[in-house]
């Protein structure tokens, strides 16, 4: 999610489109106050600038009092001292800069007409201020920068705080997230499950978090190099699943295609096969051929040759998914809309014109899957076949 202090070249890897959507989310809906986890500071569980972590909690009601949705924000990553310093004095690096209230919409809505299966749950939005998808943990702090790389400690401290507030009695629990938060829900899926009561129904949802290892249009391994730098900068290796790090370099374990097969907890992957953020930052990163500018920001403006390359990106994405095999407990909603993040925006999550696969909108598919009413594993046809996409639907 964007912040104006982060530099014109988006070196912190944030989608302008996702940022626009966040602005829309924050204009309406239920406003929820911030909670600072002050007790986390003594444990060293702090944001990049040393401030306490934070979250927003809307208490559950009615039949949802013992059900918990823990949703992690997105916001890219920082991969070196320079980019982490750029985040340090923004809401992506400091709780001092966070809004005191945020709007809950989409999967966080408290209205049954907008969020049919999770509206009355305890709903938590965990703020993102570490730049490592909650994986980093370095004890040392350079006095010249005062940067704290403590994402893994934040994750633990926030979850402990929520457990003490009643999540330890959860009957249903879902960890979810968007973008870098969607990656968080994958990397921490089994760890989340282990914290919940043995008899609880616990599942994980990743929204736009299935980042793939693919070369950019210049043939460079841009994403792999970036993730390797993130892991090195934050000291993330020890907090990534050992089932992956025992076989691959730690940086490669930021790619879900190297993780998902080993996850034991039921996981739902919600993603576009033409994820707009991945197209703009992995396939066509900053500094690429300027002739791609219009195409990377509006798929309807792509030439036939450019669209062929985007179709190739979709092919790579689907192969990465297929390599995971088909788990009977997993869910898939892979559409062909040129979007990034689809759970936080009411118009995409559940509304009259929301995207659908078959006869189900995203909210219905996720709810049916979570409650075991019916499985859902569908992949959309190639762009531009899907008339339900809210963006470029007539292109």
Please indicate the percent range of residues in DSSP E strands (runs of 2 or more): 5-15%
Biggest sheet: strands, sense, closure? Answer: 10 strands, mixed
Individual helix count: 12
Task: Give unreliable regions as ranges.
Answer: 1-27
Give the C-alpha Rg: 19 Å
Overall mean pLDDT stands at 92
Q: How many strand segments? A: 12
Structural category is: alpha/beta
Q: What is the string of SSEs from the N terminus onward?
A: HEEEHEEHEHHEHHEHHHEHEEHE
Q: Helicity level, as a percent range?
A: 25-40%
What is the CA–CA distance across the termini? 26 Å
**Main sheet strand line-up:** 4-1-2-5-3-6-7-8-9-12
- The global form is globular
Provide an overview of this structure.
The structure is a single chain. With 395 residues, the protein is an alpha/beta fold. It has helices at 16-25, 81-88, 151-164, 180-187, 189-195, 222-234, 242-245, 276-283, 293-297, 304-322, 346-349, 362-370; strands at 30-36, 54-58, 67-72, 101-104, 122-126, 172-178, 201-207, 267-272, 331-335, 356-357, 360-361, 377-379. The protein has a 10-stranded mixed sheet with strand order 4-1-2-5-3-6-7-8-9-12, sandwiched between helices. The longest helix is centred in the C-terminal third of the chain and has 19 residues, at 304-322. It starts with 15 loop residues before the first helix and ends in a 16-residue tail after the last strand. Mean pLDDT is 92; it is low at 1-27. Keywords: Cell wall, Cell wall biogenesis/degradation, Hydrolase, Secreted, Signal.
């Amino acid at each position: 999610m964007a912040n104006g202090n982060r530099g014109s070249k988006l070196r912190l890897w944030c989608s302008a489109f996702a940022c626009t959507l966040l602005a829309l989310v924050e204009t309406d809906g239920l406003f929820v106050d911030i909670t600072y986890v002050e007790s986390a500071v003594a444990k060293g569980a702090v944001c990049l600038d040393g401030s306490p972590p934070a979250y927003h909690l809307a208490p559950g009601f009615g039949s949802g009092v013992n059900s918990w949705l823990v949703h992690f924000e997105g916001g890219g990553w920082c991969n070196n001292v320079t980019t982490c310093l750029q985040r340090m004095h923004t809401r992506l690096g400091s709780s001092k800069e966070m809004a005191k209230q945020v709007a809950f919409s989409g999967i966080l809505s408290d209205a049954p007409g907008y969020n049919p299966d999770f509206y009355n749950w305890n709903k938590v939005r965990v703020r993102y201020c570490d730049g490592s998808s909650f994986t980093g943990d370095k004890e040392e702090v350079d006095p010249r920068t005062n940067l704290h790389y403590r994402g893994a400690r934040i994750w633990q401290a926030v979850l402990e705080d929520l457990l003490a507030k009643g999540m330890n009695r959860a009957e249903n629990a879902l960890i979810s997230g968007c973008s870098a938060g969607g990656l968080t829900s994958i990397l921490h899926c089994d760890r989340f499950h282990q914290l919940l009561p043995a008899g609880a129904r616990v599942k994980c949802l990743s929204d736009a978090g299935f980042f793939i290892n693919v070369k950019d249009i210049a043939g460079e391994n841009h994403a792999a190099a970036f993730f390797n730098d993130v892991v090195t900068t934050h000291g993330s290796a020890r907090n990534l699943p050992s089932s992956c790090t025992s076989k691959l370099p730690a940086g490669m374990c930021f790619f879900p295609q190297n993780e998902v097969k080993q996850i034991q907890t039921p996981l739902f992957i919600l993603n576009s096969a033409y994820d707009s953020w991945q197209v703009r930052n992995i396939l066509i990163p900053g500094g690429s051929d300027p002739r791609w500018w219009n195409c990377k920001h509006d798929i309807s403006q792509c030439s036939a040759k450019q669209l062929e390359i985007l179709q190739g990106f979709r092919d790579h994405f689907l192969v990465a998914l297929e390599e995971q095999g088909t788990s009977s407990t997993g869910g898939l909603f892979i559409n062909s809309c040129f979007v990034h993040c689809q759970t936080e925006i009411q118009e995409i999550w559940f509304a009259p014109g929301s995207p659908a696969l078959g006869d189900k909108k995203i909210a219905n598919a996720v709810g049916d899957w979570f409650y075991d009413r019916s499985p859902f594993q569908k992949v959309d046809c190639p762009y531009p076949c899907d008339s339900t996409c809210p963006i470029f639907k007539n292109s």
